[in-house]
Amino acid sequence: MDNENTYLFESERLGFRNWKDSDLPLMSAVSADPEVMEFFPSITTTEQSKEFISRMNTMFDERGYCYFAVEEISSSRFIGFIGLCYQNYESEITPCVDIGWRLDKRFWQRGYATEGAQACLRYGFEVLKLESIKSIASLINIKSINVMKKIGMKKITEFNHPNLIEHEKLKRCACYEIHR
Question: By the 8 A CB rule, do 37 and 31 touch?
Fold first, then answer.
């Protein structure tokens, strides 16, 4: 790995940064893993991952946040993303700032999603001065809902996600929220 990694912020074990071109094959591999993408309509293509990284870079430039590229500090290994994303799809809970994560399964069961999400909440509230942050997951995604609870979020509603209407198992979602 290159030594030019300067992080926007860190948690105990994780470094958060904007995206770079060399992340594309790594993020593509994570998002092409059926186990990682279990609670999404499908795995993503390399082109879709490229579009995602481009959207995240644009969002960071415009808003000062995105779903950040995350590295394990001790090894400088890319582990996926954890961060904040502006959401404005048509629903009762939007527009909002969403906190979310997608990690390479080799880094599961280490507490990284919880640790990283807590660091992103601090960044969102202390640096960006956001008033509230939401998180959305399909009701069947118990792992993500457990992370939401661990970081102090409270369930505010359930709704049919407009982008998941065609996916019977996924469309019913829970929205959790936390305030500064």
Answer: yes
One-letter amino acid of 79: I
Q: What is the pLDDT of residues 137-154, one digit of tens each?
A: 999 999 999 999 999 999
As a whole number of Å, the end-to-end CA separation of the chain is 36
Task: Cis check for the bond before 25: say yes or no (omega within 30 of 0).
Answer: no
Is residue 111 over pLDDT 80?
A: yes
Sheet of 67-72: strands edge to edge? Answer: 9-10, 14-17, 67-72, 77-87, 96-103, 132-138, 172-179, 154-160
Residue 68: which of 86, 54, 80 has the closest Cα?
80
| 150-175 residue pLDDT tens | 999 999 999 999 888 888 898 999 99
42-71 burial, b for 16+ CB within 10 Å, e for fewer? ebbeeeebeebbeebeebbeeeebbbbbbb
Compute the distance between CA of residue 112 and CA of residue 30 in angstroms, rounded to an integer.
15
13 vs 115: CA distance, rounded Å: 8
Note the Cα 92 to chain centre separation in Å.
Answer: 21
* Closest C-alpha among 88, 95, 90, 102 to residue 137: 102
> How far is the C-alpha of 87 from the C-alpha of 143, rounded, in Å?
21
